[in-house]
Amino acid sequence: MLSTDIAKDIQKAVDRRFDEQVDFTAELVGFPSTRGNEATAQDFMATAFAQRGLEVDRWKLNVDDIQHLPGFSPGVIDYTNSYNVVGAHRPESPRRNGGKSLILNGHIDVVPEGPLDMWDSPPYQARRDGDRLYGRGAGDMKAGLVSCLYAFDALAAAGYRPAADVFVQSVIEEECTGNGALACLARGYRAEAAIIPEPSGHSLVSAQTGTIWQQITVKGHPVHASRATEGFNAIKAAYVLIQALEVLEAKWNAEKGEHKHHCGHAHPINFNIGKIAGGDWAASVPAWCTFDLRAAIFADDDIQARARELEDCIQAAAAKDRHMSNRPPEIVYQGFMAEGFALDDMANAALPVSLLGACHQQVHGTELKHNAITGTTDARFFGLYADIPGLVYGPRSVDVHGFNEWVDLESVRKSTQAIALFMANWCGLEKIQP
Ligand SMILES: [Zn+2]
How far away, in angstroms, is 238 Cα from ligand 1 center? Predict the structure, then answer.
């Protein structure tokens, strides 16, 4: 470990620039970087990387580069305006001090803000209230992404540079496919560890569930509503399928004892009907209904087998229905086909995990908690497809994906310090020559 003096200097350097860090985060929240609209936020990040002397690599996602790779998920949109940005620090002579390379990864994309009238203040005008910063994406995960940059700055302010390669990645598509992180792998970025400061409430994510998205469409038989019994109502038919999926969800949860990473969790598997649309007119029996399903799978599940189980469940329920048995529902894969992942299963994770524990202890004065989560993160790409331990560790945030999302700024300050200390210890330090 670093000398206590240097560690203290780095922590103080974070504190000195923290107001600026909050302002920068607030400015970044101002870009409504929902899916397909990330480009200007990425420009902002690219400028910030360049100002720090990081070498900027900005490129447009191209499905042809990634669709043959494990972990690819079918996209929901085309990638005409979809850019990743990486800022690279490459020391003159890496490894001179035995330093190890590091990826700091965060996603720039945010989920839709929902009805504006449910927010107390506009979601893309960050609002600071004491130790809270409100705004869509403030917690998930712009504060974390920005903390990577300011952790890097803190080393410089204390008079040092990392003695090994550091790649700061601002990626898109985390919330729907993960194809942004996958594109970074396809482009060749590798390191000996990765940190992803998702809002984990300063615990380390030890395992994560996988995620499958399916879009299901039922066709009805439209007739005048006055003769509804002669038609077939696609919206009501969708209910039947949704109820069958609820039974399957309960069955999967009942199997949790067989899955070591999530057996202690009350309800690890969550199915969500996140969107539904159907019909055209109150006086016509609806001819169509489409709904979007998000299903979780266990960290150690076979994703293809689970996807087939979902399909079988839907088709079995349809087969029992007179109309749907003649015209089975269509199931389309759009978005996540994300395998589960457990950092705990990686032999080479022990070293970075124990170092992060020590850095966390230094900042918080408490032991680092490990936590299995019931959602996915980009950590799976590093762990499953590149053998890089991906450590998800970041600040505390409340109401992510809801309204009035906020991030706890004191926890942002502390996790920035912990990440800076991790970088200093993991990569080693070189004195900046005045
Ligand atoms: Zn996130």
Answer: 30
